[in-house]
Design brief:
- Helices cover 59% and strands 0% of the residues.
- The chain is mainly alpha-helical and 209 residues long.
- It folds into 2 domains: 88 residues, Endonuclease Iii, domain 2, CATH 1.10.1670.10; 102 residues, Hypothetical protein, domain 2 (Endonuclease III, domain 1).
- The longest helix is centred in the middle third of the chain and has 19 residues.
- The two termini are 18 Å apart.
């Protein structure tokens, strides 16, 4: 099987069998998504979804958050990973959005990456989910699945991202991120992947692991 054939087979499977795939983070606005994605770094979506309702009740807008200090924010997020750094980043992010972007969450990756706490993965997630930008966010799940399936041999998330974007059509890049992420979260798990029940086993370069 050539690389092109592998991509075609895997993408066809997802198109036909997983027509809806979206973020499992709970959010009701652009601002809430950005905050949730920043909090989700090295943390589970489930944990983030537990802490954000109280945080958003206290700070319902980016303007409200911009007036908070890291010390104000910390009690709401103390159960997520790296809460001290994330509290500082959220306070600084909100101020920058207000000062540099007129209170509107930027739509392009370069400007999103200027926000404290927003690396490339976070920027790509926000740009694709909110603005349907043709980018593929590579988190730990996407990185692992892409390499296992044989979609990329990239040694870094950026290398994998470039490989995926070379082969995945523009119009399905946003949903392709979720296809790969959810496949990694529930089937192609880091420990004890469910190879025997994986629908992509026939196309997988690593099967059986």
């Amino acid at each position: 099987m050539t690389l092109e054939q592998r991509y075609a087979a895997i993408l066809d499977y997802f198109r036909n069998n997983v027509p809806v795939a979206e973020s499992e983070l709970h959010f009701g606005s652009d601002y809430e998504l950005l905050v949730s994605v920043i909090l989700s770094a090295q943390c589970t979506d489930k944990r983030v979804n537990l802490v954000t309702p109280a945080l958003f009740a206290a700070y319902p807008t980016v303007e409200a958050l911009s007036k908070a200090t890291a010390e104000d924010i910390y009690p709401f997020i103390k159960s997520v990973s790296y809460p001290n750094n994330k509290a500082k980043n959220l306070a600084a992010m909100a101020r920058k959005v207000m000062d540099d972007f007129g209170g509107k969450i930027p739509s392009d990756v370069d400007n999103l990456m200027k926000l404290p706490g927003a690396g490339r993965k976070t920027a790509n997630v926000v740009a694709s989910v909110l603005y349907n930008e043709p980018v593929v966010a590579v988190d730990t799940h996407v990185f692992r699945v892409s390499r296992r399936l044989g979609l990329s041999r990239g040694a870094t998330p950026r290398a994998v991202e470039l490989d995926l974007e070379r082969h995945i059509p523009l119009d399905i890049r946003p949903i392709a991120h979720h296809w790969l992420l959810l496949h990694g979260r529930y089937t192609c798990t880091s420990q004890k992947p469910k190879c025997s029940e994986c629908p992509l086993a026939a196309f997988c370069k690593s099967y059986p692991i």
